[in-house]
Each structure stands twice: as C-alpha cells, then as structure tokens.
Amino acid sequence: MTDTARTPSEPGEEAAGAATAPREATYAPGAGVSPAGFGPRRRRLRWLRWAALATAVLVLAAGGVGWAAYTKLNGNITKDTGAAAELARYEEERPTPLVHDAQNILLIGSDSRSGRDNRKYGRDLGTQRSDTTILLHLAADRQSATAVSLPRDLMVDIPSCRRPDGSRTRAQFAQFNWAFEFGGTACTIRTVEKLTDIRIDHHMVVDFAGFKDMVDAVDGVRVCLKEPVDDRAAKVRLPAGPQTLDGEQALGYVRARKSIGNGSDTDRMDRQQEFLAALVNKVRSNDVLLNPVKLYPVLDAATSSLTTDPGLASLRGLYELVRGVRDIPTERVQFLTVPRRSYTYDANRDELVEPAADELFTRLRKDEPVRVTRDAAAAAYERTAAKAYEDDSEETYDEGESAYEDGASDEAAEDSGGDDGSSGSYDDESDEKPDDPSHTPSPAPTFRGNTADRTSCE
C-alpha cells in the first residue's frame, strides 16, 4: 500500500505547503539555531511566570500582613465616648478657640490600680486620680510644642461633675486631681478649661502599664542620676550616674517623690519632664522610626495604652496628629510647670503664682511664643511679677481702707470732682485708670522649664 500521507497528490498542494512553511517556521528555531534552543527559552519563560506568581503572592501577603497590623493597632485604642457626650452637655460654657489650626491636648496619667498589671502598685479602691496631667499646646504653624505640667495638688475650682454612677458632685474648691476621681476625663477637662480659659481639643489617658510598655518598646530610656534612688513606695532602687531604665524602673523613677530631691511634687514634675524629653528623643531617633521591627512594638504599646476622645481614637487620627508635629525641632519642644507656690493655707497644697500663670495661659490661648529656661531668669521673672501684682493689690486695698477710716464719703468724693461732676482723680482727656496694668511695664515672660534637646545627662 502506497503511503500518500507525506506526498502531495497535486502540484498545487506542494505550492500550498510551501506557502505555509514560513508560518510554521515562526514556532521553530531561526536560521543557524539548533533545535536545542527550545529548552532554555521554555525554561526562561517558565521561570518568569513563576517569578511573577511569587511576586503577586508576596504583594498580597504583605498587604494582608499590613492590613492585619493596621486592624490590630487601630483596635488597640480605647474610644472615650462617655467624656465626649458629657462635654457636649456643657458646650455653651466651654471656651471658644481663638486661633485656627492650633491644638490643645490634655495628657492624663492615671494612677488607677485596676487591672492585673496595675494591682501591685496599691489596692484598687474603685477610684482613680490623675497622677500626672500635662497640657500640650501645638502651635498653628507646627513649629513649636509646649507641654505644661499642672500640679496634682493645685487648689482649683472644680465644677459640679457627673459621677460614674450617674449622681453629681457639688461645685467646690479642692485639689486638682480630685476632678478625675469625681468625674473622670470630662470633669478634668472642664476644670482645666475653667482654670485656663483654653479650649481642650483632644485628650489622652494612659495608665501605669501603658507607660511601662512604651519605655520597654524603645529598649529603655537613658537618664543621669545625680544621686542614688531608693524609694520603697515607688518600688525603685537605682545607683547614681548614667542609667538606661526599663519600663518598671522608669515608672518608679517618675513616680518617686519624697526620696529624691527636695521631696516636692514640683521637683517630681521637673523629673518627669526631663524623662519625657529623653523619651521623645529616643522615639524620634532613626534607630526607631526607620526600623519597622522596632517601630511596630512602639506603635503597639502606644495604642494599647491609650484612651482617647473619638477624634483621636484611630490610627488615622493619631497619624494626622503625629504628621503635624514630627518635624518640630527638639529645641522647640518645651516642657515647663505652671508657675506655682505653696498654698497660703496649707503648705502641702499649691496655688498659682499670678500674674505669671495668667500670662502663660494667655499666650497659649493666643498661640503666642512661650520662652523657657533652666536658669534663674525664669524664677526672677515670677518673683518680680508676683511682687508687683501683690503690691498693686495691697495698695488698692489700703487706699480704699484709708478713705473709709478717714470718714470720706461718696458725697465728699463727688465734691472733689470738677464742675461737670467728674472725679478729680481721672485725666479729663483719658478714660484709663491710673492703676491700669498697661501703664506698668512687665518683664519679658520667661518660664522655668526644659527643652527636648537638653536632657539630664548634659
């Protein structure tokens, strides 16, 4: 039987086959190439396909890990809706912001003993007070940040506040940290706004455990101790000299009071400010911010320890806040304590030094520059301003009392005026009083404090 499969029966068929040859050749090695060229090319194409698939898998995996991390960190933050609702009830009495884009954030360190990690610092009596309270002012241009410590023992007017059980406290003059015990964050914010006339835009609350976790997440914070620390109440014992404190040691160090320095709360606040400056420097260092392995634990610790207002209770909210302050030079991140002195009627309590405190609050409210220094200039300013303020008050009181004692009456005062009935003690061409503060030049406002670029190890 003749095999006709390979032989065209008609001449046209051969021509047709020849015509299709070039099309078939497009799938074959070109001229001068061995048929063995199929193998490397196929392997190369197969490798590229696998590489593309692997890349796609890695991208999806990275996206999944990123989303999982975002979801976890976002879920760590506790939203304080109760305080927001309570503050909304008193919106009419709250101060009006004066400068657009400036922000004031109240940072509260709670001394709560509730929870497994906080119990060892004392019994949980069902109450908590603000162990540390800091008013953080962020300038509208985000070129400076000023953190003002408010003493826990400062005597202030606390408004009537709503207790957790729904009952209300009476308005009273008491020490500042009672506000947090009475009515939590909302009561503290209302007390601060009443004291300073500054609108609080956001708040954050952190407890003992959260503070420790933050310090441990950055592998400790370095401080320099001028003297040994041995404080049983704060559960800390440290030698003098440079030390890198872990979370537990750091908590004891910033809480210790009577065993370090002069034993005052003011001295403790100075120590807290120096430690926070060192912590800021550590977090902002490239070793942390540019290292994802180190940055994630910091974010995890920070978010896990925070209770915030709804506006900050998300990674997006916190990111917007951090983005605005990350470029502030450390020398313009300032820490200070509101001008204070021992309360007149109780040396264990504090009162504001006026007019220095009012000058500070006014500058923050108007978003004006605040200058701090560690030398004696700040103390001198406070003393001079306070003396002028007290002398002016006493002089006004003495003049009034003298007139009363001399038997001067309203009729006599009217007789001493001009023909038009105006008082002779006023300038006819001016409506300003002789004791108007604008006539008395005041020293440049310089407050005692520290900046983040200067630590206790200098």
Account of the 3D structure:
This protein has 458 residues and is of the alpha/beta class. Helices cover 43% and strands 17% of the residues. The chain contains 13 helices and 17 strands. The strands form five sheets. The chain has a nine-stranded mixed beta sheet, with helices on both faces. The chain has a two-stranded antiparallel sheet with strand order 5-6. Strands 8-11 form a two-stranded antiparallel sheet. α3 packs across α4 (178-196), α5 packs across α6 (247-255) and α6 packs antiparallel against α7. The chain is globular. The N and C termini lie far apart (107 Å).
* Percent of residues in helices: 40-55%
Total beta-strand segments? 17
Order of helices and strands: HHEHEEEEEHEHEEEEHHHHEHEEEHEHHE
Strand order of the biggest β-sheet: 1-12-7-2-3-4-13-17-16
- The number of helices is 13
Rounded Rg: 36 Å
**Which structural class is indicated by helix and strand composition?**
alpha/beta
Which outline best applies?
globular
- Approximately how much beta-strand content do the residues carry? 15-25%
Mean pLDDT: 75
- Poorly predicted segments: 1-35, 118-127, 396-444
Q: Characterize the main sheet.
A: 9 strands, mixed
The CA-CA distance between the termini, in Å, is 107 Å
Q: Can you tag this structure with a few keywords?
A:
458 residues; alpha/beta; 9-stranded mixed β-sheet; two-stranded antiparallel sheet; 17 strands
Offer a concise description of the structure.
By secondary structure, the protein is of the alpha/beta class. The chain has helices spanning 11-25, 38-76, 81-89, 178-196, 208-217, 247-255, 265-284, 286-289, 292-304, 315-325, 356-365, 376-405, 410-415; strands at 78-79, 103-110, 130-138, 145-149, 155-158, 172-175, 202-206, 221-225, 229-231, 236-238, 241-245, 307-308, 333-337, 340-343, 346-352, 371-373, 446-451.
